[in-house]
Write a structure and sequence with these properties.
Number of strands: 18
Structural class: alpha/beta
Distance between the termini: 69 Å
Largest sheet: 7 strands, mixed
Number of helices: 23
Strand content: 15-25%
Shape: globular
Length: 571
């Protein structure tokens, strides 16, 4: 099967001979299935790999999210068997001698097929589906029940004569219901593409919410008696003091889900009803993206190319928390990374490791701040310096002076748009002539949700919507709106894409900065010189069907309203 799959992919032109030889060698040395190695290589899409496996094994492909799975089918096999063997029953055909249809990720998964047959007492017919699709489906139909059972088991077996800490630090901790609960919670959040998990204490119940594509959704509620155990378990995993409940704490841990490693940053905060915990999930490879995946328009790409061609100066990426600044920074660094340059970064924390780049993490306890680290970095003969965030006047001044003395500096700043970044640096005490001389480009960005490609539907524009989008009355335009399906978990959206406002610092803008012009005047000049605003970028994505009008309104904060005026429309 492994050799046949490689040969099929090679004959189809989906992989090169060199990659086939590399995969073959890795398969022979590790004995891991070729399908896993091909998937990890990123050389083919998930659908292409499924089609190749289907052609080689002659097993048809099924997409589990296309239709709901009947209750009677879900009750035939226990969830633990499905997870163990990565299989999912999805249909039952009583006319075909009581045959159950089962999705498998591995065509050679004979044991999983046999276990389903034994548990269900039915004949089994196999279909192919991706591992992610199967695990997501198991989470969708069984995840809540599994976590609820773990919570109930903890409540029933909780021993009053032992502290929570003693129970969680015992040797058989992996069998503890609260450990099972936390592991399930993190794993399901990862599979649902969540960026954060919020565990919040209330007057009577614990509320658990996950942030998916920038929006929070409630996924579970538990008895308040479980709060000490849940918080203590997360603290143990992240190396925090489990006895300290009065002060905020920050920690981190790593976890592997479906063979991918994730970094989890943990923050605890004492509240009125008990400690709140937020876990930020970050796949270690997520920040290693190509520029084409960011969402830049052709004009944005040309502007960014011109900015990156400067041998020295400062490039700022601005936006609120969670707007994708770090991803853009790492993408820029990956492009600039070569053997000919020395790149040094100072970050808090280091979010992803890039081969060939010297990365430094600040440590306030050791008096290693952004400013002190920068002073040391300048003695390391750097060509390019990346600063995770400019937070204070000392860091801002050193960064600006470093850019003037022949270094290319890239960093982030918390401002709402490009022009206001100049004002922010001035507020930090940096002289305006230094800002004008050093800055070569400023990038403001946000993230908007993509419409789910499986369920979005066309939406004819009303008159007030045409005015909002600046569409002429004689122009035929049809945008799309969210619907909701199993694939997008009923939200109508799947994944996010960036919208950008890129301001090149032209000679005219430099003069305005030196003359202490306002942010509004600088912005007007940038617009006259052809800058696309965040609104322009969002409008482009609405008109080409990538996102919705409602999502554009949610992200773009502006004074003009799209509220319908019936009287005006009637005219």
């Amino acid at each position: 099967m492994n050799e046949r799959l490689l040969e099929y992919l090679l004959r189809s032109g989906l992989i090169t001979r060199e990659l086939a030889d590399e995969l073959r060698a890795e398969y022979q040395s590790t004995n891991r299935p070729v399908r896993e190695l091909v998937a990890e290589s990123g050389a083919v899409t998930e659908d292409q790999l499924l089609d190749a496996l289907s052609a080689v094994s002659r097993i048809p492909v099924v997409h589990l999210f296309e239709s709901p799975i009947p209750v009677e089918v879900r009750q035939l096999v226990r969830a633990d068997i499905l997870r163990t063997y990565t299989v999912m029953p999805f249909a039952f055909d009583p006319e075909d001698s009581g045959t159950i249809y089962v999705a498998v990720a591995d065509p050679l998964n004979v044991k999983g097929r046999d276990m389903v047959a034994i548990a269900s007492k039915c004949r089994v017919r196999t279909f192919l589906a991706s591992t992610e699709d199967i695990l997501l489906t198991i989470d969708r139909y069984y995840g809540s029940d599994e976590m609820r059972e773990a919570a109930e088991l903890y409540t029933q077996t909780n021993e009053e004569d032992r502290s929570v800490e003693e129970q969680l630090l015992q040797e058989d901790v992996n069998n503890s219901p609260v450990v099972v609960l936390i592991n399930s919670l993190v794993e399901q959040a990862v599979r649902q593409r969540a960026s954060d998990i919020h565990i919040e204490a209330g007057p009577a119940r614990i509320r658990v919410r996950t942030r998916v594509d920038g929006v929070l959704y409630t996924v579970a509620t538990y008895d308040m008696r479980m709060l000490p155990a849940i918080i203590a378990r997360v603290k143990i995993m992240s190396g925090l003091d489990i006895s300290e409940k009065r002060k905020p704490q920050d920690g981190r841990f790593s976890i592997t889900v479906d063979r991918r490693e994730y970094e989890v940053r943990v923050s605890t905060l004492p509240t009125v009803f008990g400690e709140k915990c937020v876990m930020r999930l970050s796949p270690k490879r997520a920040l290693h993206r190509g520029r084409e995946s960011l969402g830049l328009s052709p004009e944005d790409n040309r502007r960014l190319d011109r900015i990156l061609n400067h041998p020295n100066g400062i490039i700022l990426v601005t936006g609120p928390t969670g707007s994708g600044k770090s991803t853009t920074l790492y993408t820029i660094l990956s492009e600039l990374n070569s053997e000919a340059v020395n790149i040094v970064t100072v970050e808090d924390p280091v979010e992803a490791n890039i081969e060939g780049i010297n990365q430094l993490q600040v440590n306030p306890k050791a008096e290693l701040t952004f400013a002190s680290a920068l002073r040391s970095i300048l003695r390391q003969d750097p060509d390019i310096i990346m600063i995770g965030e400019i937070r204070d006047s000392e860091t801002a001044t050193i960064a600006v002076r470093a850019s003037i003395t022949g270094h290319l500096v890239v960093s982030t700043l918390h401002t709402s748009d490009t022009a206001s970044s100049v004002t922010r640096l001035e507020d930090m005490g940096v002289e305006s002539y230094l800002i004008a001389e050093s800055t070569v480009g400023i990038i403001a960005q946000r993230l908007v949700r993509r419409l789910c490609p499986y369920c979005k539907k066309p939406h004819p524009l009303a008159e007030h919507e045409r005015r909002y989008l600046d569409v002429r009355p004689d122009e035929t335009v049809e945008v799309c709106e969210p619907v909701g399906c199993q694939r997008c978990n009923g939200t109508g959206y799947y994944d996010r894409i960036g919208i950008f406002e890129i301001m090149e610092i032209s000679p005219r803008i430099k003069s305005q900065i030196s003359a202490h012009e306002t942010a509004d005047r600088i912005r007007e000049t940038a617009l006259e010189e052809g800058m696309w605003t965040l609104r322009d970028s969002a409008r482009r994505l609405v008109l080409n069907g990538t996102t919705s009008l409602g999502e554009m309104q949610r992200i773009i904060a502006e004074n003009m309203s799209m509220a319908e005026d019936p009287a005006e429309d009637a005219e």
